[in-house]
Design a protein that fits this description.
The structure holds two protein chains of two kinds. By secondary structure, chain A is mainly β. In chain A, 0% of the residues lie in helices and 51% in strands. The chains are: A mainly beta, B mainly beta.
Chain lengths: 120, 111
């Protein structure tokens, strides 16, 4: 059974940092692009970032470019999202998501989400 | 890049069909074969319903279908059931840099 389990969410002050982790199981992790998608309270879905199967290529939404860094460890079946210079509008549930294949926006498995709250 | 445009809400009676539209531009939906649709019940993670414009993942009922015309994609749900009441989001490939853009979401009410 495919499982994605996020951890590392919590309350952080504006300007602070947080690192989300996602533990994957039930599939060959190194074969899939991995993504982060977020959803602010009461709002819609927003794609945040993706990382190539080998970690050799990454992409970011304009809103997080230069502040967030995605990485992965295929030996440990984990993907991370390092979030720096956090702002109030980064407050959201962050989902770890598996991509079907390269250019597809078919995200077939989602974690339960990790809540990040940026507030003083 | 702005979010794709979806109607805020649609409704239908059990057994009827409804279609949800998702309008973008030539930079996303209009120039892409990669459009997906997600169903999200309150407090739950989204569920993939359609990918690559028309493809249904295993386990998704054939009542759900996808299509595209120009820069607008459509999700059609036939034979509406009470459990279809949910939020629906479209998503499109938007280029190798931005990669993906979602719609604002549509609340489907089954009357």
């Amino acid at each position: 059974e495919v499982q994605l389990v996020e951890s590392g969410g919590g309350l952080v002050q504006p300007g602070g940092s947080l690192r989300l982790s996602c533990a994957a199981s039930g599939f060959t992790f190194s074969n899939f692009w991995m993504h982060w998608v977020r959803q602010a309270p009461g709002e819609g879905l927003v794609w945040v970032s993706r990382i190539h199967t080998e970690g050799s290529s990454t992409n970011y939404a304009d809103s997080v470019e230069g502040r967030f860094t995605i990485s992965r460890d295929n030996a440990k079946n984990t993907v991370h999202l390092q979030m720096n210079s956090l702002r109030a509008d980064d407050t959201a549930v962050y989902y770890c998501v598996r991509g079907l294949y390269g250019p597809s926006v078919g995200f077939d498995y989602w974690g339960q989400g990790a809540l990040v709250t940026v507030s003083s | 890049q702005s979010a794709l445009t979806q109607p805020r809400s649609v409704s239908g009676s059990p057994g009827q069909s409804v279609t949800i539209s998702c309008t973008g531009t030539s930079s996303d939906i209009g120039g892409s074969s990669y459009v997906s649709w997600y169903q999200q019940h309150p407090g739950k993670a989204p569920k993939l319903m359609i990918y690559d414009v028309t493809e249904r993942p295993s386990g998704v009922p054939a009542r759900f279908s996808g299509s595209k015309s120009g820069s607008t994609a459509y999700l059609t749900i036939s034979g509406l059931q009470a459990d279809d009441e949910s939020d629906y989001y479209c998503c499109s490939y938007a280029g190798s840099y931005t990669f993906a853009i979602f719609g604002g979401g549509t609340r489907l009410t089954v009357l």
